[in-house]
Amino acid sequence: MYLILRTLYSKEHQKTLLVIALVWPEPASTAAGVRMMQLLEVFKKQGYGITVASAASKSDYSADMEALGFQTADIKMNDSSFDVFVKDLNPDVVLFDRFLTEEQFGWRVAENCPSALRMLDTEDLHSLRHVREQCFKKDIPFTTDAWLADDKTKREIASIYRCDLSLIISSFELELLTDVLNIDKSLLLLLPFMVDEITTETNWKTFEERTDFVFIGGGKHAPNIDAVKCLKSIIWPLIRKQLPEVKLHIYGAYLPQQILEMHNPATGFLVHGRAEDVTEVMQSAKVCLAPLRFGAGIKGKLLSAMQNGIPSVTTTIGAEGMHGILDWNGYIENDHTAFVEAAVRLYNTQLTWQNAQHQGKTLVNTLYNKHSLEHIFIDKINQLQKGLMTHRIQNFTGALLQHQTMTATKFMSKWIEEKNRG
């Protein structure tokens, strides 16, 4: 009888997580989708009941949440039906997928579930990526002053303050928030991608068994499109002169027509579209190329390269926040000529290639170790839940922004809702 009562009690008090997703996760298509699935796995291991909700439509490549054991819900923006939904669910933790969802639904969560821990997964700092892209298009240097002056920065930082905790994926972005804006570290947690440790038994293909270069990047991400254009027009012709028999394979979901039309077998520039098996693609190629000229966050393609034993050549932007004080698993070059020389050197020199491969393993096991990062994450959540009231009192800026935002956003949302009814 005691065992039955204890089981019923534990079920009755099972902690619940609500994820408000900007889009339904696509782990086979986007690094953001991979990230979300990693976070869900952590909560699932902790016994949370998990509901994933989104106002977006599902795609053919959206993960099957129900098959993975999660509840799902279709929600509407600017609609009071969400208030009923979230109040009935009464989650212990609410995870906002990027600041745009916090802007839309944060005030409703705060109003209807005031005791829920509100957490923001930034994915990367969208404002940083946005301003860098604008500076690149204008051919002017990026500066923190330009970032601070942008409206999107103000919106994203306000969202960070309104939440109890924001997950920051890149060490560079954490330093930007703490050093430039002096955001209290209690509001932030550095949490990069969480992956399995690479063991000595990993069955990777050898240097001799691999061939060709590879680039992987989704077509909905502007830095990827620019990188492919750079490869096509500048970098690949120079590599091809030195390695006339070698090919470059371009993979990515949702590649636009302008990229698909770059396919040219005569020059070894092969555009394949979506990669059905990223592991197979990565473990067959010899060198990964990623000439990223703007962007933010951690680059999933470069971490995937490390996981699959393929050295890479990238830029400062590409490697930013990904390797700490450790050496890169290949080369970091911003000059096109130096980039090409590094790529050819890696491709031709077995010892250099093997050392770079080993360094990738060191980076993964040191900075992205799932076991240790999961413990850090859960410990932080437990700590906040125990002292949530004190934590919020000490975050006066967040309370101020929450008050002002709830007033402004609430009535704007209600006005939109009434307008839609009319």
Short overview:
The chain is of the alpha/beta class and 422 residues long. It is 51% helix and 13% strand. The strands form 2 sheets. Strands 3-2-1-4-5-6-7 form a 7-stranded parallel sheet, sandwiched between helices. Strands 10-9-8-11-12-13 form a 6-stranded parallel sheet, sandwiched between helices.
How does this model look, in words?
By secondary structure, the protein is an alpha/beta fold. It has two domains: 9-194 and 370-421, 3-Layer(aba) Sandwich (Rossmann fold), CATH 3.40.50; 213-367, 3-Layer(aba) Sandwich (Rossmann fold). Helix content is 51%, strand content 13%. It has helices spanning 2-12, 31-45, 81-89, 99-112, 126-138, 144-149, 151-162, 171-180, 222-242, 257-260, 278-284, 300-307, 316-319, 336-348, 350-367, 370-386, 388-394, 396-421, and strands spanning 16-21, 49-54, 71-74, 93-97, 117-121, 165-168, 188-190, 213-216, 248-251, 269-273, 287-290, 312-314, 330-332. The strands form two sheets. The protein has a seven-stranded parallel sheet with strand order 3-2-1-4-5-6-7, with helices on both faces. A six-stranded parallel sheet has the order 10-9-8-11-12-13, with helices on both faces. Helix 3 (81-89) crosses helix 4 (99-112) and helix 9 packs across helix 14 (336-348). It starts with a helix and ends with a helix.
